Automatic annotation (TrEMBL):
Keywords: Cell outer membrane, Lipoprotein, Membrane, Palmitate, Signal
Main location: membrane
Keyword Repeat: no
The protein's assembly and partners: Component of the lipopolysaccharide transport and assembly complex. Interacts with LptD.
Name of the protein described by the UniProt record: LPS-assembly lipoprotein LptE
Gene: lptE
Biological role: Together with LptD, is involved in the assembly of lipopolysaccharide (LPS) at the surface of the outer membrane. Required for the proper assembly of LptD. Binds LPS and may serve as the LPS recognition site at the outer membrane.
Keyword Cell inner membrane appears in the UniProt entry: no
Membrane topology note: Lipid-anchor
Entries under InterPro entries matching the protein: LPS_assembly_LptE
Top-rank lineage group of the source organism: Bacteria
Family the UniProt entry places it in: Belongs to the LptE lipoprotein family.
Amino acid sequence: MLKKFSLLFVFALSACGWHFKNNEVLPESLRTLTFESADQHSEMSRILRNQLKLSDVKLVPRADNVAKLRLVSTSSSNRVVSVFKQAREAEKILTLDVEAIADIPNKGQYPLTVSVHRTFFDDSRAALAKSAEKEMIMKDMYEQAARQLIIKMAGLNKELSQVK
């Protein structure tokens, strides 16, 4: 009976779209932001902007007394970690490094860095399928990096309360 009730409870919560809100953990000074990026239309900028909106962060045009989140750089790399018998690449580690700066008026600048890693099995015999798979993995890595940046912004709570 308890299993049926808990299963019904899980289905009810997932069906209604209920989810936790993270905006309560963000410092008040970071709930309204100006977002800046060298390339406003890059994949990372677009995904970070969407993740900020999902966290109920209000994005406003440039203003003097509003905190600013600046996406400084995004770089990706891969490293071969295993090979097939024929000395072809088999498995790679994909790495995404993201650097941003939270610039808060009267509080200072806080650098935020995030690094996300994934393994990728690369078989050259299925190049087209592996290319599509790699694009999906990279998109997932961008989303995870954006979520981690927001978590790091929430972690600034303690530092911001110490600075007067």
